[in-house]
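#struct-help
A.M.: can someone run this one for me? Single chain, 183 residues.
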Amino acid sequence: MATEQNQEAQDLQNEQAVEQQSAQTQAENEQAEVTVDSLQEQIAQLEGDLKLEKARTANAVYEAQKSVERIQREAEKHKDTVLEKFAKELLTSVDNLERAIQAGGEEETPVLEGVKLTLKSLLTTLEKFGIVEVDTINGFNADLHQAVGIDPNAKANEIGTVLQKGYALNGRLLRPAMVMVGA
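D.P.: on it. Structure tokens below:
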């Protein structure tokens, strides 16, 4: 009886194996029935998808580059703005040192010599960072100078007296020179 049951179980397993093989063979036959046209359609579809993804990737790279450039421009602008504010504050110290030298008169004292050296050092440092004095020798220029009065001893359109020096930072005006102009 046990042998009969074992035999029946083996027969049942053999039948299942045969059914699986026939199902597998049928699936392989169905795959073999895939036509060349359908494969070419799939290839065309995949190529189209690939082109679309390449375009999306190129667009993403372009956008990333533009973002980096924009951030760099904004950082540079911010740096210039901070430098400009800092430079304007330092110009007050330059003015005060120049007034101290004028108040010292003609007598060369050690204190006056120290003030002159300090002013020279400060102006050298400012020049390293692109801060230069505005030209007041080559006549009046409304873009660089602010006329605050008329100097009767100066020629027409010439600068007679400079009341306060002007400064520019990398070609941009920080502060116009306050001058008196001839009439």
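A.M.: thanks! The chain has a mean pLDDT of 85.
D.P.: also worth noting: Residues 71 and 77 are 10 Å apart (CA to CA).
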